[in-house]
Design brief:
By secondary structure, the chain is an alpha+beta fold. The protein has helices spanning 32-36, 54-68, 76-90, 132-137, 165-176, 220-231, 276-289, and strands at residues 12-15, 18-21, 39-41, 44-47, 50-51, 95-103, 117-124, 139-148, 181-186, 191-194, 198-203, 208-211, 236-239, 249-256, 260-267, 270-271. It has 2 domains: 12-124, Aminotransferase class 4, branched-chain amino acid transferase, N-terminal domain (D-amino Acid Aminotransferase, Chain A, domain 1, 2-Layer Sandwich), CATH 3.30.470; 132-289, D-amino Acid Aminotransferase, subunit A, domain 2 (D-amino Acid Aminotransferase, Chain A, domain 2, Alpha-Beta Barrel). The chain has 7 helices and 16 strands.
Length: 299
Amino acid sequence: MSSPSFDDRDGSIWFDGELIDFRSAKIHVLSHGLHYASAVFEGERVYNGKIFKSAEHTERLHQSAKTVGYSIPYSTDLIEKAKADVVKSMGFQDGYVRPIAWRGTEMMGVSAQNNTIHLAITAWEWPSYFDPEAKTKGIKMGLSRWKRPAPDTAPTQSKASGLYQICTMAKHEAEAAGMHDALMLDYRGLVAEATGANIFFVMDDGKLHTPVPDCFLDGITRRTVIDLARRRGFEIVERQIKPEEMANANECFLTGTAVEVTPVGQIDKYSFTPGEVCNVLGEDYSQLVRGEESAVAAE
């Protein structure tokens, strides 16, 4: 049985300051955010009824808005309460929260200085991003022809909606080829990230290598997993990684709010075997987000 459409669900959405019926949340077709992608958003997971690192996500939402040129007219404290109210109204213990802010309809064109800034917060139940079998064996990824842009050509340190168009295009192409996702290189041809997640490699030297996030988002989950890895005694190397260096990697995994910690079994012609590092960090992360930290993770 298929899931209901995302506009046809029970519960409430927080919309410009109040909770309204989920099905009643509407915007006008001439909203600037729809035409010019002047929207910023967050993706947050709910575990056991609590949003993981909620305040960090709200702070990043405000920063993303400032990066693209506007301020969200609601304080962090108000947004935090609104998110909690939405989760409570939906009645689930595990799910996903999506705050999104966008420019409205007062001006239609590239210029939009006088447009009202709107904010909505939604939530829904969302299971594992990839099916359990794929996560156990490691997902398969293609190599996208689309590249992450240079930081002087796009607001790469924001979670702005326009940056995700090429991600959708890359993921659709990968899925059409029988893959689960795609690896995106950056404007220099270096390893960047997946379509919605950061990437890590366990190289032949036994160290954990990950690209420097200088033209893509430094994910909250990425930083969390780096912290967990250091507590486990793994050495982290943040550096520029050439695609051909994947031949020297034994393990590979993705990190992100949606994907959590997901092992990778294949990227294009390169193969990896999910092993100790993937398993340990995946378990540590799972325990952390559910408030069941291991002795090492809690130190």
